[in-house]
Amino acid sequence: MYGRYTQDLGTFAKDEAARLRLQEGDTPQPRHPSELLEYTQGRCGLCRVCALQCQRFLISKVGEDWVFLILLGLVMALVSWAMDFAIATCLQAQKWMYGGLDTNVLLQYMAWVTYPTVLITFSAGFTQILAPQAVGSGIPEMKTILRGVVLKEYLTLKTFVAKVIGLTCALGSGMPLGKEGPFVHIASMCAALLSRFLSLFGGFYENEARNIEMLAAACAVGVGCCFAAPIGGVLFSIEVTSTFFAVRNYWRGFFAATFSAFIFRVLAVWNKDEETITALFKTRFRLDFPFDLQELPAFAVIGIASGFGGALFVYLNRKIVQFMRRQKAINRFLMKKRLLFPALVTLIISTLTFPPGFGQFMAGQLTQKDTLVTLFDNQTWAKQGINDEFEYLGILEAWLHPRSNVFVTLVVFILMKFWMSALATTIPVPCGAFMPVFVIGAAFGRLVGESMAAWFPDGIHTDSNIYRIVPGGYAVVGAAALSGAVTHTVSTAVIVFELTGQISHILPVMIAVILANAVAQSLQPSLYDSIIRIKKLPYLPELGWGHHEKYNVRVEDIMVRDIHYVTLNCKYRDLQQVLHSTKMKNLPLVESAESMILLGSIERAQVGALLNTQLSPQRRLLALRQKVMPEDGHRLSDSSIRFQISTETSSGTPARAALRKPLKPALKRVPSSPADSPPAGSTDHTGIALKSLFCANAATEPTEVRACVRRKGGPLLALVGRLYPLACPMAPPQILEWEEQQLDQLVDFSSAKIDPAPFQLVEHTSLHKTHTIFSLLGLDHAFVTSIGRLVGMVSLKELRKAIEGSLTGKGVKVRPPLASFRDSTASTSEADTTALHQLWDRHQHHHMPREAGPGGDEDDDTPK
Amino acid sequence: MYGRYTQDLGTFAKDEAARLRLQEGDTPQPRHPSELLEYTQGRCGLCRVCALQCQRFLISKVGEDWVFLILLGLVMALVSWAMDFAIATCLQAQKWMYGGLDTNVLLQYMAWVTYPTVLITFSAGFTQILAPQAVGSGIPEMKTILRGVVLKEYLTLKTFVAKVIGLTCALGSGMPLGKEGPFVHIASMCAALLSRFLSLFGGFYENEARNIEMLAAACAVGVGCCFAAPIGGVLFSIEVTSTFFAVRNYWRGFFAATFSAFIFRVLAVWNKDEETITALFKTRFRLDFPFDLQELPAFAVIGIASGFGGALFVYLNRKIVQFMRRQKAINRFLMKKRLLFPALVTLIISTLTFPPGFGQFMAGQLTQKDTLVTLFDNQTWAKQGINDEFEYLGILEAWLHPRSNVFVTLVVFILMKFWMSALATTIPVPCGAFMPVFVIGAAFGRLVGESMAAWFPDGIHTDSNIYRIVPGGYAVVGAAALSGAVTHTVSTAVIVFELTGQISHILPVMIAVILANAVAQSLQPSLYDSIIRIKKLPYLPELGWGHHEKYNVRVEDIMVRDIHYVTLNCKYRDLQQVLHSTKMKNLPLVESAESMILLGSIERAQVGALLNTQLSPQRRLLALRQKVMPEDGHRLSDSSIRFQISTETSSGTPARAALRKPLKPALKRVPSSPADSPPAGSTDHTGIALKSLFCANAATEPTEVRACVRRKGGPLLALVGRLYPLACPMAPPQILEWEEQQLDQLVDFSSAKIDPAPFQLVEHTSLHKTHTIFSLLGLDHAFVTSIGRLVGMVSLKELRKAIEGSLTGKGVKVRPPLASFRDSTASTSEADTTALHQLWDRHQHHHMPREAGPGGDEDDDTPK
């Protein structure tokens, strides 16, 4: 990413904008008043003029950020509202079916179970067929994409459609699934699609950096319009997706999320669901005395318990996934019938929640939304039997069981929902885990609150006024704490304030969330990081809290030392050798093998192109022509040949063409082994892959495949010889001979594109600093140099291994046993001095009379 | 910053912690229960054991982040509470004095005016004498410090004391001054002092990166405990002080700010000020229908107007400062009587607010806190004359004037307070502008709200229920919008929610704040950036909102091309030359003047040390001894001399010593000209400064000063010769000769500390990318290379100039007229190819028979 000067499309955007403004300027502006006057007779005409003006104005503004953000917010609000509407309708239908069949319990059960099973199965099947990338939360993928890794297939229209429809069905089934994560993904896809759509009006949206910024804003929009929580949305998306956040881009998120949340709630008002814009789960706790100081230990207990619970949830979720993968017998059976697993899980869960069955002990008939509304309720349930203060019970009734008490119901609910949610979120449908966890947390908080209310019936405060304990407040605290623990975020606190519309419990919520985070972060990774690990996405893990020992690993401990490089004075044969022996995407270019001074890095594809050009049939034909008719008047000088070749190369290599279309989707799956996905075929595939690599820009000349294939030996050559009949007058042995000659020439790098400033680290750079630099600049590799000399390379892979501490494989050793006892100052300066000494000595050699045998780099100096 | 591998003290911290844990382990842990049983007879003994255990445990935990953060939070909460108490007492005293003298208006006036004048004058004088750095807000300085620039004097105990006492007096005077900015500064100083104090227990706190992280957390604590707003505090501090924020450090801010806010509010409960923990300015707006959808345009109007108002405030503030500086006559007079300006301003402002005088039209008798409480009031003032719903009036009465109406009072208040606040914040006392602006915004919002209430007496909503308009809500919106506009932050929205304890107005607040920010950011810099510019602090300004044209300036347009460098094969004379001709802190080290391959960078101090070592009297004496007694048995070989020198150099250079003490305060003032503050004297000062630079580690040998002085010519030499009598047997002419000889030797870099990976940019790196990299990595300079060859340098200064667009001075040209029309692709590849061609050709030369004259770098190869 760094140092490779991608062409700044801002220029183009600006020119385009200027052009459009000029066009706008061409329309006779001074005449507007008279024009308007002419049209005032017909209102329709006036409207038309206005519309025209608006249109022109809008098109000229299309390149501006705020237009994009408003459009994004608007679209996402509409999507969110429509989906909510569809989900509510689905749930209503189930309730209606279940209610209509109340004469026969068996029929009721069938209806209760079949409906979600069908929906989930449809959702799983639909997603599987249309776009398997739509499965799951999407936040892990967004985190990876915002890290700079391109997962193109994740941001396409197909995935968008699959995710929206799949999610609607999944949530409509009433399973304990969430919509937050998928919404982040949906909003990001929406942003990507919108930017592609808007780029039809001009090239404003082709700047990669800007697209990343917009995706970050889109994540905020996703959370914002899902919960109508703009501030919490921005903060949550930052915490969940970013490592380093540019404060410069802060406003984008706020702007878009606020607009989106506004439209989302306005739609609810227009639909007469609400009288005015209010919170989604509005609470009505008393304002004057929200909680007593002495209740704080109870809130702290909620926080700590939530921390353990959150870690357990992540652990359970991961174990279920791993179990399903490991059990080959089950796995094979399920893989054959891909839809069986979702159906089975749905069947189990819906059977258990069947209200006349076990569901009566766990408020099974309530939807997720109703559950939350009841849990955040203002009243104290424990006294419900005794007091008759309540005028209405309504949906609260679900929590009351005639032969049991509310504590039992809550405990059963928490326990059952816990494993159900952990299980349900592994179903291959688009779904998140935030909302189920949030509900469990609320139930746990309510449980603690009810216990406190039962313990202190008249409140703890012993002054004149009696302030009873508000269990609803505990529910809010619990919800924030558990969801914070699972996602490792603090901003769930802000989300609950915005969700409930009350901020009076700020201190208990903050204390509980921080404690929950502290506990959970020391036990398990966050749910999203856990999924990243399971899916093996190319992501750099975070350094742990104050793990000082990490600081003492240095780049020299983790770097790969035996790297392949290209020297400035190498021969084409060496290029071939390097291409054959390494899969690295970027090859370092050094001055010479002796000096090893790093001059830049060259892309693998460029090296391939160089080699290909050198052995191209055009050059062969030219050589032949020169040999055959040296007396020809049209003798082509060597330089003109080179010129011809270089222009050809610079215009047609596939690498370049790919570079120019940053967001163009390509049907490419995520590489299962991260960080080393070869850009265009690897050497493991035989000649064919190599051909596509080397011969892409001269596919009309089939014989040239030999240049690539000849290394593979005779049989393949013969095969090729049969496949491609001879098209040039050279016989195969001649060609081989000519190619051998060509390979012995020195490489002409003048036509290759070289990145003159690849990122460089020093041997002694600490792991901590390396991690910071990699995260900050979104690097995927860096060369390690010592006073200009290349000594090694570190890629994302090595870094990840070093951080995760699981080090196996080639040449990577981490943390030598004595690392922590190493006297860093001494070794640092010593090694430095040594390296410098060498360089200095090398230079001294030049000034001394040459007595000893020729030094390393003197080979270059001897004239040939 | 980057690439210079500062010794990681994490290692040391870890070892220390391990040691302490081992010590703890030494105490017989299994015996604890019996020990405890033994002591249970005497409770005192038990306590002692517990205390001992606690003490041991705490000491072993001292190195952990959370202990530091808790201590910081605790200390800051206590400071905040104590200051609030003192300020309240001061204000109470003024009120008491004013109230007690109600028999005589003149006496009343005298008391009303004298009291604040004395306090402000004392504050200004005290601050001026003790630590002038304590003046003003402190946020601009913190922004600069967090950017990586060391402003040491700003974080000392003296400044802390000056700021705390100065601020208490300033706020106790009742002037329209704020405490938020100073609190950020106080918290940061507190963190710096605390880390220095805790480092007495071990070396945990000497890691520079960690200190920066802790300072960022401290900023959050400052805001958090000032407003009891942990979330808003964290966000505000991020927005105001950071450019790129590491999400990794998020929890630090939240943890410390929450703890601090908690303690701060608990202290209020213990002091019986409050019954329980609630918001600082609690509002009681109705929950069920906070506002109507149709009121949103009014909120938007508040936002836009606040945007203009905020920009005007920043403009006014800056103009006042500039006016005061420019008017030399006034300036000279005021400089002489430094305390006259504060006294004068206080006199004017307090005269105008005198309640029986003009103050009666602007609620002059209310303190800032009372003003806010009344403005956020639940009731509608406009109807106050008509309705008699009100039971109490209390402090609200101040807003009602018998012969005027509340609109007039509000308008007068806003207008007067506006210029008063802008003027008052220029007084040289510790003070911020947030709170005054916040109050003005609240008044403006209240004005709009009251107007709306008068316009729609029964609310806008036309359904069955009548929901009246709540002007208090408008006041909240106005406060957030204006303070957001002045500071360019969105998080003021969160701060008002936490301050008022209600979040029901979230959408209006967000809309208004975003609109205000949009307007203000397009008109003026933020108040803090404005102060940074006025004070000329070395800070990198932000790139504007979507200023695409900035993207098209490249490093080659702004870099300094004629830089001075050190070559690997240079002579000491060249070093001297370079030191004489440039003030750069870091000199590039290149391979040779012809190849210009950048090998690293060397600090100026190191170059000085090298030169000094070469010309040191020790070496001269050695040389003399060798010359005098060549037959001596103790003949010292050249290598042993060098060895001796190099050990000496590496242990005693001032640069190294300074590096090891990152937070050690030094009595150094802020450099008035930014970015090029010389590290240890500049060449402008004659021999003496040079002496201190070069001869620091051999001060016992006075004659060596000649080595530095001889360039200055004869008179100085003669002077020195008189000052320092001869201490070595060489005569001055001999010394000169010897030194000339020495200067002609090649430099031995083996003892110098070289940064082997200084940050490198490419010529074509865009300004946008350069800015990002500089901000991210906290660089203050970067070398520009072209395929390993040094071609220029960019420092913070050039970058700042390029961004601000005001380009004057040596060799810096920005944005050539045709920059925007330049075809970037073509020129890029062309220039690249050219550069590479040269390098390639250079190498080709070696392989060709030498026909032409010797090439550039062949000078090195010819044996001497």
UniProtKB/TrEMBL annotation, chains A, B:
InterPro entries: CBS_dom_sf, Cl-channel_core, Cl_channel_volt-gated, ClC. It is found in: Membrane. The chain crosses the membrane at residues 66-88, 109-131, 183-202, 214-238, 250-270, 296-318, 339-358. Residues 671-682 have a biased composition (Low complexity). GO terms for cellular component: chloride channel complex; plasma membrane. Residues 662-683, 842-864 are annotated as: Disordered. The keyword Zinc-finger does not apply. It comes from the Eukaryota. Keywords: CBS domain, Chloride, Chloride channel, Ion channel, Ion transport, Membrane, Repeat, Transmembrane, Transmembrane helix, Transport. It holds the Pfam family Voltage_CLC. One of its GO terms (molecular function) is voltage-gated chloride channel activity. Gene3D superfamilies: CBS-domain, Clc chloride channel. It is a multi-pass membrane protein. This is CLCN2 protein. The gene is Clcn2.
